[in-house]
Amino acid sequence: MVLKIFFPRCCNLADSGLLIGRWLPGHDAAVVLAVIHFPFIPGQVKKYLSKLQSQTQVDLTVLGSWSRPKEGQEGLASFLQELSTIFPQGRWLQISREKGEKGFRCQVTTRGGEGGQEEVEVEEEVEEGEEKEKNGEKDKVIFIHYDQRKVMLSQLHPAKGLNLNSPAKVSELRLVFQTVAQSQALFFIDKYDEGPLKLTHWQSEGREASILVELAKQAFVPLCRLLTWLLSWWNWLSSAWLLNVWPVRFVSSKLSTCIQISHRTEHLQTVSSTKKAEEHMEFMRKANIFVSFVVDVALGLLLISWLYRKNRIGQLADTLVPVADHVAKELQELLQWLMGAPAGLKMNRALDQVLGRFFLYHIHLWISYIHLMSPFIEMILWYVGLSACLGLTFALSILSDIVALLTFHIYCFYVYGARLYCLKIVGLSSLWRLFRGKKWNVLRQRVDSCSYDLDQLFIGTLLFTILLFLLPTTALYYLVFTLLRLLVVLFQGLIHLSVDFINSFPLFAMGLRICRPYRLAAGVKFRVLQEEPGKSLHLLMEVQRSISPSGWVCPRTP
């Protein structure tokens, strides 16, 4: 049988004392969590462990003794060994490390059934050959060293919702991770505490925290409450009857700015919640949203500083009207080309002239509208630029709406062409069924046979011929305006893609992946540290980072 001891690397150089940890139920293994330094009072140790058990709901106990003797402590090892009578356990570990040695010496003793005598089971310092000759095959001890900080913060197997003392069969690694994670109260005592007990663990040199972070947490509590109140007031205002009228609701669903406001409101409600995140995934989601919001506002402030420096707002306003005139001029030249013989195609002259003049008149109206608004463009851009203080995504959303307004005539051209082309296609398909003696049954939603008289067939054939010869002219206008509309949609799509990238990119998870990859753990791997005949095998358990590209959701070990 093999006895596995999970030993924290932070305790390798700890002073002599008692090993605090837990025997894993259902497994021949133990997890060492801390070392209580000598000197100590056994009664205070028992009281401290009882308090920890009530706080953590983990069966913490004294596993044995740890001996790393210094000058003047030659008899300390035997004294610690005798403490097994004060802390009665089924097994008592005696782990020692001599000066200059890499490995540990381990001796495991058990309490016999008669007379309470102790019997030596394993003594790893005996040569392997002598061990087999004297006592036969004995148990082996494997030390598995682990980084307590990484195991504690990896959240590979969170302890929430699990009873560690349950008799149900649980995997060994899962119990190790959950024991360390749930024993957080054990790691609160550091060297700056003036209590009777001194411990060595991953935070014994001082708690891993920042004064600035703690002050920020305290300052954010009233800020989150104020933000929650403002968001509730905003939701009440948004649910007002006037804003839920069909035209207002329809227009707001088409504006990118209104959609971004609704997304940002949901994000702020998630971040401003004073309820602590209970699960690791919920914490990662809130942290990613908060970091994305901070980066978004920072980028917006940078944009404001660039826009309002050297009168760039005025330069943009002076450039906007000439650009709109140039686009209108290019559209007029395109329509003139379509009204002639585009690419040598023979078009229906009458329909071509009607459509061309119709669209030219719309362009004339659009140019008049632009020149009418030109005195106010600089003021509009000045106030629009201030929206960037809410974030770069707001500025990009407003830019998308401005592009939609400036290209509204192209959208109208596309709608007219698409509607006309659709009507002709529907008419041709209906007349084609009439030409074949068929009709569309509206009730049964199918094509049925039908007998037509001579007049119906003559008129249908005549209309089919007229629509068929007019189709190329309509299709050409529809194709040209569809391509123009497609260019506008592609440009707006790039803007929306940038907004979605800023809103949903997991910046916090990427930062953890670079700085603290163990916080996004995917599993563990083992590496041999020391393997010598007649001595304990020493392994190193390393936490592997997640291979997920976003780091948002991390798979867990089975």
Structure report:
The chain is α/β, with parallel strands linked by helices and 558 residues long. It has helices at 42-56, 76-82, 128-135, 148-153, 172-182, 211-238, 246-254, 256-271, 280-307, 312-339, 349-373, 377-386, 392-406, 408-435, 454-504, 507-515; strands at residues 2-8, 17-23, 29-37, 61-67, 91-96, 105-111, 118-123, 140-146, 199-200, 438-441, 446-449, 521-530, 537-545. The strands form two sheets. Strands 1, 2, 3, 4, 5, 6, 7, 8, 9, 12 and 13 form an eleven-stranded mixed sheet that branches. A hairpin with a 6-residue loop joins β6 and β7. α8 packs across α9 and α14 packs antiparallel against α15 (454-504). It starts with a strand and ends in a 13-residue tail after the last strand. 25% of the residues are buried. Residues 113-137 and 549-558 have low confidence and may be disordered.
Which key terms come to mind for this protein?
53% helix, two-stranded antiparallel sheet, 13 strands, alpha/beta, elongated, 558 residues
- How large a portion of the residues is in β-strands, by DSSP E? 15-25%
The arrangement of helices and strands along the chain is EEEHEHEEEHEHHEHHHHHHHHHEEHHEE
Please compute the radius of gyration using only Cα atoms: 39 Å
Overall pLDDT: 81
> Strand count, sense and closure of the main sheet?
11 strands, mixed
Q: What structural class should be given to the helix and strand makeup? A: alpha/beta
Termini gap: 24 Å
User: How many beta-strand segments?
Assistant: 13
Low-confidence stretches: 113-137, 549-558
Q: Fraction of residues in helices? A: 40-55%
Helix count, DSSP H or I runs of 4 or more residues? 16
Overall shape: elongated
